Amino acid sequence: EGATVGRALQQAGGLTELADVAKVVVRRGAETIPVDVEAVLRGDRSADLLLRDRDEIVVPRRERRAQFSV
Predict the structure, then answer these.
(1) H helices then E strands: how many in the chain?
(2) Helix (H) or strand (E) holding 58
(3) Which of 23, 31, 32, 47 would give a disulfide with 36, using CB separation of 3.0 to 4.6 Å?
(4) Strands 25-28 and 31-34, how do they pair?
(5) Strand order in 31-34's β-sheet?
(6) Distance in angstroms (rounded) separating the CA atoms of residues 18 and 29
């Protein structure tokens, strides 16, 4: 078995509360592949993408939304 997104995230220490799990992608050359990380974390192996050499996992930071009280 090869490396997967789930294993790579685990080896990196997991995700923080700042991670935008809905927008995780794998960059493979010119291709951008969305990854359903929530499904991966639930144990859905079919959602856990097998990585190839030179793949990059991109975990964006969640946008902070300002709340205003009036």
Answers:
(1) 2, 3
(2) strand 56-58
(3) 47
(4) antiparallel
(5) 31-34, 25-28, 56-58
(6) 26
- Give residue 20's region: left, alpha or beta (phi > 0; psi -120 to 50): beta
CB atoms under 10 Å from CB of 5, counted, come to: 23
The percent of residues in the chain predicted with pLDDT above 90, rounded, is 84
**Complete DSSP assignment for 25-66:** EEEETTEEEE--HHHHHTT-GGGSPBP-TT-EEE-PBPPP--
Specify whether the CB–CB gap between 55 and 3 falls below 8 A.
no
Is 35 or 2 the better-scoring residue by pLDDT? 35
In the block, residue with structure tokens 């993408």:
49
Residue type, 1: E
**What is this structure's pTM?**
0.83
Distances 64 to 21, 37, 61 between C-alpha atoms, Å: 14, 20, 9
**Any idea how long the chain is?**
70
